[in-house]
């Protein structure tokens, strides 16, 4: 006999608003139904009201952890719409932000994963190391979480030589720490008992369900935008794809720890080889784009991040589409959960590094009225049109 | 046995030593140079061109009347509760009237309490 177990959207073991309905037989999960849609924020629509220059600052608020990836990916798309190429130094600094962010995100994830398994000491250790990364960000960009480093045609701030020296020292320190973490994860009996053979995703399933990022790579599938379609300066950098084999939670952990090491190598290479010269080109805030469309893909810490822009020749985009990695990883996590035990749910869900809030982007909150209202697509469209017209006239002063 | 000895020694040391964490807000933590914190506006430099108002991605700027600003007689008013501290306004201000200071103590009990400093030098 099976019965339903409801998990989320508010649950102590799951910090983000997603709901799973588990059909369980005793302790074992037979079937899983995920439900998204608790946290739509309307950011794609909002992006259409912002000028090309402003778009990245809205985009970076889609996710608090990979804000640099969203910001950079968005501007890479805008540059493709305009057909401009940023200067080399700008691209190096952009890559520096992306790789530093990957380290900070993986350290954060490692802490959360260990916390889900009940290993809180190591959680404190990893988050202490992450703090150093945030300090570097603060020194480089002026903020700790939302860096706003990129702009159309380059980056907004230059890096100094003293900062690069500091970065190298940080890389040396963190390399030791990653070795320590890897040793611990592979030797500690508690971690092995919780992670080994838990939430296995086979290579075939990873490919057929379109898993992205470390989730796919831990199963041995070569899914990495830096590998498939090198952007920015990755084709010159010492980047190497990191692959796992088993596809369980342990493999996902090891792949991410090894990836941090690759990122450290890239950071060192950037510190040594960054060319001198301009780091941005001039861009006027009210520039009109040519009629064009463009896509932009980068490898965010959680996997492939995708932006699509359509321009009809105005100062704002006419359509923006964002696909974040967690959205692509929802189906694989359903596969991973099937046949597992209830006690392993937090570890399995955490193993994809979920960032649910950033995979949803549309919501309508009506504070004044109570109750739920169903509206048709046409009504929504006309509402959007009216909203636009009012907003444009009143707030922006454009006719 | 060696491990246990180490554990006890550490535990005793930490029991009587100072805490590792910083005693905020009794000890101040300085932000790095170039931090994008509270906005300050120098009204004497501002010309009232409203370029900052146009570039702001968060619509956090309102143009309000101010006699001190020449020639346009209006200056930006920053609603810091809406601001995302992107510093685009400071970047695009033609006269350099806007500066983002290193002050990150941005709290208040009301949205209206958090607004930018307006200085006249
Ligand atoms: S852009 Fe500068 S000069 Fe123009 S209104 Fe704003 S603060 Fe004043
Ligand atoms: S810092 Fe950015 S969000 Fe804040 S007022 Fe200036 S332009 Fe607007």
Brief write-up:
The complex is a heterodimer of chains A (399) and B (121). Chain A has 399 residues and is of the alpha+beta class.
CATH architecture of chain B: 2-Layer Sandwich
Distance between the termini of chain B: 69 Å
Give the strand order of the largest sheet of chain A, numbering strands 1, 2, ... along the chain: 1-2-3
What's the total number of strands of chain A? 8
How is this structure best described in words?
The complex is a heterodimer of chains A (399) and B (121). Chain A contains 15 helices and 8 strands. In chain A, the strands form 3 sheets. Chain A has a 3-stranded antiparallel β-sheet with strand order 1-2-3. In chain A, strands 6-7-8 form a 3-stranded antiparallel β-sheet. Chain A is of the alpha+beta class and 399 residues long. Chain A starts with a strand and ends in a 5-residue tail after the last helix. Chain A has one domain: Cytochrome-c3 Hydrogenase, chain B (Orthogonal Bundle). By secondary structure, chain B is α+β, with helices and mostly antiparallel strands. Chain B has a single domain, classed as 2-Layer Sandwich (Alpha-Beta Plaits). In chain B, the strands form 2 sheets. Chain B has a 3-stranded mixed β-sheet with strand order 4-1-5. In chain B, strands 2-3 form a two-stranded antiparallel sheet. In chain B, a hairpin with an 8-residue loop joins strand 2 and strand 3. The longest helix of chain B is centred in the first third of the chain and has 15 residues. The radius of gyration of chain B is 22 Å and the shape is elongated. At the A-B interface, helix 2 and helix 5 of A face helix 2 and helix 3 of B. The site of one iron/sulfur cluster (SF4) has 12 residues of chain B, from helix 2.
């Amino acid at each position: 006999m099976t019965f339903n177990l409801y998990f989320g959207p508010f649950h102590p073991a799951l910090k983000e608003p997603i709901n799973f309905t588990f059909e369980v037989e005793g302790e074992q999960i037979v079937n899983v139904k995920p439900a998204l849609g608790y946290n739509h924020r309307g950011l794609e629509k909002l992006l259409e009201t912002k000028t090309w220059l402003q778009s990245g600052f809205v985009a970076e608020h889609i996710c608090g952890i990979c804000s640099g990836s969203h910001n950079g990916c968005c501007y890479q798309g805008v540059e493709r719409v305009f057909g401009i190429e940023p200067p080399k130094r700008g691209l190096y600094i952009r890559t520096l932000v992306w790789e530093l962010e990957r380290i900070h995100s993986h350290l954060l994830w490692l802490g959360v994963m260990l916390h889900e398994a009940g290993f809180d000491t190591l959680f404190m250790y990893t988050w202490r190391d992450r703090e150093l990364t945030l300090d570097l960000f603060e020194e480089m960009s002026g903020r700790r979480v939302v860096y706003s480093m990129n702009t159309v045609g380059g980056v907004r701030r230059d890096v100094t030589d003293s900062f690069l020296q500091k970065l190298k020292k940080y890389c040396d320190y963190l390399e030791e720490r990653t070795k320590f973490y890897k040793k611990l994860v592979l030797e500690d009996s508690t971690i092995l008992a919780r992670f080994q053979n838990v939430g296995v995703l086979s290579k075939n399933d990873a490919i057929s369900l379109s898993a992205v990022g470390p989730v796919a790579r831990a199963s041995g599938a070569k899914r990495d935008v830096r590998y498939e379609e090198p952007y920015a300066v990755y084709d010159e950098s010492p980047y190497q794809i990191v692959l796992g084999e088993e596809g369980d939670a342990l493999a996902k952990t090891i792949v991410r720890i090894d990836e941090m090491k690759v990122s450290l190598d890239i950071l060192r290479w950037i510190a040594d080889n960054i060319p001198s010269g301009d780091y941005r080109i001039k861009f006027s805030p009210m520039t009109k784009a040519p009629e064009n469309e463009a896509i932009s893909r980068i490898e965010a810490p959680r996997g492939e991040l995708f932006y699509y822009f359509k321009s009809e020749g105005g100062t704002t985009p006419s359509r923006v589409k964002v696909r974040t990695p967690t959205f692509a990883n929802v189906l694989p996590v359903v596969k991973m959960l099937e046949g597992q035990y209830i006690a392993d749910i937090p570890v399995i869900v955490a193993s994809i590094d979920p960032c649910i809030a950033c995979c949803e982007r549309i919501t309508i909150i009506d504070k004044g009225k109570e109750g739920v209202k169903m509206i048709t697509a046409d009504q929504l469209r006309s509402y959007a049109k009216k909203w636009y017209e009012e907003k444009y006239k009143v707030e922006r002063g454009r006719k | 046995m060696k491990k246990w000895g180490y554990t006890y020694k550490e535990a005793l040391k930490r029991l009587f030593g100072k805490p590792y964490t910083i005693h905020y807000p009794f000890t101040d933590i300085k932000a790095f140079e170039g931090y994008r914190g509270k906005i300050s506006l120098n009204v004497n430099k501002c010309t009232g061109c409203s370029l900052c108002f146009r570039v702001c991605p968060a619509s956090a700027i309102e143009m309000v009347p101010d006699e001190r600003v020449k020639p346009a007689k209006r200056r930006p008013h920053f609603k810091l509760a809406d601001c995302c501290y992107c510093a685009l306004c400071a970047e695009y201000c033609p006269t350099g009237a806007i500066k983002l200071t290193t002050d990150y103590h941005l709290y208040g009990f009301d949205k209206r309490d958090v607004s930018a400093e307006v200085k006249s030098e």
